[in-house]
Design a protein that fits this description.
- The structure is a single chain.
- By secondary structure, this protein is an alpha/beta fold.
- It has one domain: Rossmann fold (3-Layer(aba) Sandwich).
- An eight-stranded mixed β-sheet has the order 6-3-2-1-7-10-11-12. Strands 4-5 form a two-stranded antiparallel ribbon. A two-stranded antiparallel sheet has the order 8-9.
- 32% of the residues are buried.
Length: 200
């Protein structure tokens, strides 16, 4: 009988093929819809709080098989002073992730785990987001998330009490995903198709 990790690995392989089959235009079209749903959620859920200089949105720099948050410039224009991006530590003695306040135009292209990613400068201010947008390989409507297997988001989210938003293509919402006790669940899913409150 395959282990949970074996099952997760198989789903990752399958989903990666699905996403990489998207044409550039289709990925952009889907990403723009996701961003529009994200903006709607933020305005409906937080209202005037979004105008506060202290309000921070944890976001991510997309990889090629993830929704492109930058596809719709209206998002980054509206919230340009409220964005924070993760910086990862590739160190087996201290596998951690923290968020740093940064505008998109000053992110730096860095290599992490052999992949180029746009990440905050080393001088960026450490912050703690009010809401966090979480990428993932796949999700379920009950909130189960399948990440890339490094555990960075799971460890960070253990101590996070704000809304956790799973950001995904419609094709990334599956009926079932195996999970372990340390896996962190999402509160909402935001896809190109709709916005889902998890567990309802």
């Amino acid at each position: 009988m395959p282990s949970v990790q074996d099952e997760k690995r198989k789903i990752r392989q399958t989903q990666k093929r699905v996403y990489l089959d998207f044409s550039t235009d289709l990925r952009k079209e889907k990403s723009i819809l996701i961003v529009s749903h994200l903006i709607f959620f933020l305005k409906q859920h937080f209202g005037k709080q979004l105008c506060s200089e202290e309000f921070i949105i944890g976001i991510f720099s997309p990889l090629t098989d993830e929704p492109d948050i930058f596809a719709d410039p209206s998002f980054t224009q509206q919230f340009k002073n409220a964005l924070a991006f993760p910086n990862l530590t590739d160190n087996t003695d201290e596998e951690t992730m923290h968020f740093y306040h940064s505008r998109i135009e000053v992110l730096e292209n860095k290599e992490v785990f052999g992949r180029k990613m746009l990440l905050p400068k080393d001088t960026a201010k450490l912050v703690f987001p009010n809401v966090i947008c979480v990428p993932g390989v796949a999700f379920t409507t009950s909130g189960v998330r399948l990440g890339r297997g490094k555990g960075y988001y799971d460890r960070f989210l253990e101590n996070f009490s704000g809304p956790k938003l799973g950001i995904t293509f419609r094709e990334g919402i599956l009926k079932e995903i195996p999970f372990l006790r340390h896996d962190q669940s999402m509160d909402f899913l935001i896809s190109d198709e709709n916005l889902i409150k998890c567990g309802v």
